Amino acid sequence: MTHLTSSTADDRRPVPQPDEITRFYWDGAAAGRLLMQKCLSCGKLQFPPDVCCLSCQSEHFGHAEVSGRGSIYSYAVVERPLHAGFVDALPYVIALVELDEQSGLRLVANLLDATPGTRLSCGQPVEVVYEKREGITLPQFRLVEVSR
Amino acid sequence: MTSLARDVAVVGVGYSQLSRAGEPEPLVLLLEAVKGALTDAGLSGTDVDGIFEYKFGPESPGAQDVARVLGVPDLAAFADILPTNPSGLGGVLAGVMAVASGACETALVFRCLTRAAGHTGGVVDGPSTVAGRNQFLTPYGYLGGILVEMALKKRRWMAEYSRAEEDFGHIAVNARRWSALNPRAVLREPVTMDDYLSSRVVVEPLRLLDCDYPINGAVATVITTAERAADLRQPPVLVDAMSYGSGRGADWTFNNDYLYGGTFDCADRLWRRSSVTLENVDVAQVYDGFTSVTMSWIEALGACGRGEFGDWIGDGSRIGPGGDFPMNTAGGQLAEGRLHGVSFLNEAALQLRGQCGDRQVPGARVAVVASGLYPQCGAVVLTSG
């Protein structure tokens, strides 16, 4: 599901600087697709993107689109400013999300629809949404109804 | 056996004044600590031929700064060690290896911090774009140095093992039980479990009393051969075993073993090498930059099984004065102040020398020191000579 949210013009939150290893990931996000490195040798999915497979050291990857569904592995709530660019974003939830496709395959994102008072717990199902910020698109997550 | 293996001893320990106030010149602080350590050992700068230090922060003086001011004739071995090492114990481990190998005869190791370096949790600004692995963290507000990471680890621990915050609180309360007996400690007021549970949230669920206390201070240690130690001023303390550990997938966030990193690998390696076991340990000094780190180490060292810390710790008294597992007897970084791993090593040596005054663990002959966290683990077993 693609659910675009956009930042305001004076958003001072930092943005990723794609490089030759990571560009496919951000390009995928811009197209509304969550892409992972998939090792062509051992078949493992990998995040963050790296120079080789951390399991078998193969340097040959494909880019596999994953479902964007996962669960909260852990989460923290930032209520006090740690960075000038995030002052207007407070409070925000930062989560470690484990994707459904592979045990231990995790990424860091914000839970966009979690407002103060939202009941959160580890294990809750989440799904990817996309946030546009300063010319780049960031995969983010939101809670999904258990009855999806 | 070749010449590349000798028995090693800790022969001198030194501290600067530890303070919360002001902005002292780092090299002034450090000079007090290194002179103190050399005097403690009965040595001078001309006896030093190796220096190793954990260079975390640009204000931290380097090996050559100290060699210069101490009049060291020549450095046979030296290094400024990057912050990816097992905290300040990295300098200790490098010094032990250098002396054991014969690369140098007498190594001085140290750590110097000022509050300027302790303020990584303060509000920062820029840059507007983030490269490298941090491009997957910083844009999401993963900030405050490792504060968000430590909040995530605390939450995961509680979820994984169905435990409450009190488990973490026992570490915080214990620190002040001991620091009350340590005149050098910066925080000496007792805290209760209620104090812990009502302390300010830094990044939910991480609380202020989960975090160590940034101070101005320096700490230094002198390491030489066991043979030479026999002629020096203090009762010798022998390095029985040492180990590093990183764990597979070395990383803070995306590693294989999220709650432990390399702690189990490091501890297993330590005990394989040691002439003693945890059963023989009289006093433990375990890294407490954050309370969850100590809990991971306790399990890794084998005091209890994985995930069993909460049952093991009970009401917390076993790690306090008079307990069966006296731990962090100087108050640790939570209460003595953040001095990184060297302060744990020094406190262990002082305990084995029987020189800890009101906080002395009676008859302590074996100590374990575990330092650093997640992919940056190091540990040492010390025995009285």
| Content-based structural category of chain A | mainly beta
Low-confidence stretches of chain B: none
> H/E order of the elements of chain B?
EHEHEHEHEHHHEEEHEHEHHHHEE
Q: Mean pLDDT of chain B, nearest integer?
A: 95
Strand content of chain A: 35-45%
What global shape of chain B is seen? globular
Which value, in Å, is the CA radius of gyration of chain B? 20 Å
- Number of DSSP E strands of chain B: 12
- Element order of chain A: H for helix, E for strand: EEHEEEEEEEE
Summarize the structure.
The complex is a heterodimer of chains A (148) and B (385). Chain A is mostly beta strands and 148 residues long. Chain A has one domain.
Structure write-up:
The complex is a heterodimer of chains A (148) and B (385). With 148 residues, chain A is mainly β. In chain A, 5% of the residues lie in helices and 39% in strands. Chain A has one helix at residues 23-30; strands spanning 4-6, 15-16, 35-39, 45-46, 61-65, 69-78, 92-99, 106-110, 125-133, 136-143. Chain A is globular. Chain A starts with a strand and ends in a 5-residue tail after the last strand. The mean pLDDT of chain B is 95. The relative contact order of chain B is 0.19. In chain B, strands 3-2-4-8-1-9-12-11-10 form a 9-stranded mixed sheet, sandwiched between helices. Chain B has a two-stranded antiparallel ribbon with strand order 6-7. Chain B contains 13 helices and 12 strands. In chain B, helix 3 (89-101) packs across helix 13 (341-353), helix 6 crosses helix 10 and helix 9 (263-273) crosses helix 10 (291-301). Classes of the chains: A mainly beta (148), B alpha/beta (385). Chain A binds chain B through residues 12-19, 22, 47-48, 54, 73-86, 89, 92, 94, 96, 104, 106-110, 121-123, 133-134, 138, and chain B through 121-133, 135-144, 147-148, 151-153, 155-156, 159-160, 201-206, 249, 253-254, 256, 258. Strand 2 (15-16) of chain A pairs parallel with strand 5 (129-130) of chain B.
